[in-house]
Amino acid sequence: MRKLLCWVGLGLLGSLPALAQAELYRYVDDRGTTVLDSRVPAEFVSRGYEVLDAQGRVKQVIPAAPTREEREATRRARADQERQRASDATLLRLYSSPTDLDRAHQRQITQIENLITTTEGNIAALRDQRDELQARAAAQERAGRQVDPQLISELSGVDAEVLRLQRMIASKRDEIIDVNQAFARQRDRLVALIGDLQPQ
């Protein structure tokens, strides 16, 4: 009997280090109560919890699982980052320096301005044509004749074409504003990536 008690006592003593090393878990239940237990129920794991040692010190913090909104925000942020990386790669491939970008900017603006100038010349030519058609129509009226329907149709066609070209010029001027803004953004980004490297 004494021998048996000795063995039991030794067994308890041997288990003390294991008890001293046991971990505890702290989590919040459905009622908002902080619970300290030897395990975390499965339904509360996704809320996050803390792992404590036998002295109550926090050993590890397991964060709560992200919500659907948080996962979607993370996905969008990663997609934005990927788009930015692709945009940066394209920018660096196209332009070796801000000066290089400035030259490309000026070339594009010059092309648009040349198109506007050409279109304005076409409008001037159409107005000359209209003056001629109008003079012919006036001559027919002075002669007491009805104005030729074909002449009236040509006048209408010239007016419609002038209006179309005027709208195109307005659109191209808006395009210049857009191009200037786009190149300004690209230049700012390029300088942020490589610095304002101007030729010496």
Salient structural properties:
single chain, 200 residues, alpha+beta, 4 strands, disordered N terminus, coiled coil, signal
How would you characterize this protein structure?
Residues 109-143 form a coiled coil. Keywords: Coiled coil, Signal. It is a single chain. The chain is α+β, with helices and mostly antiparallel strands and 200 residues long. It folds into two domains: 23-66, no CATH class; 89-194. Helices cover 70% and strands 9% of the residues. The protein has helices at 2-20, 42-45, 68-94, 98-142, 149-194; strands at residues 24-28, 34-37, 49-52, 58-62. Strands 2-1-3-4 form a four-stranded antiparallel sheet, with no helix packed on it. A hairpin with a 5-residue loop joins strand 1 and strand 2. Helix 4 (98-142) runs antiparallel to helix 5 (149-194). It starts with a helix and ends in a 6-residue tail after the last helix.
Briefly summarize what is shown.
This protein has 200 residues and is an alpha+beta fold. It contains five helices and four strands, in the order αββαββααα.
Cα-atom radius of gyration: 41 Å
Secondary-structure class: alpha+beta
Largest sheet: 4 strands, antiparallel
Helicity range of the residues? over 70%
Q: Total number of helical segments?
A: 5
Overall residue-averaged pLDDT value: 88
H and E order: HEEHEEHHH
Low-confidence stretches: 1-20
- Please give the number of β-strands: 4
Based on Cα principal axes, name the global outline.
Answer: elongated
Beta-sheet strand percentage? 5-15%
Taking the alpha carbons of the first and last residues, their distance comes to 100 Å
User: How many separate structural domains?
Assistant: 2
Keywords: Coiled coil, Signal
Biased composition (Basic and acidic residues): 67-85
Coiled coil: 109-143
Region (Disordered): 66-85
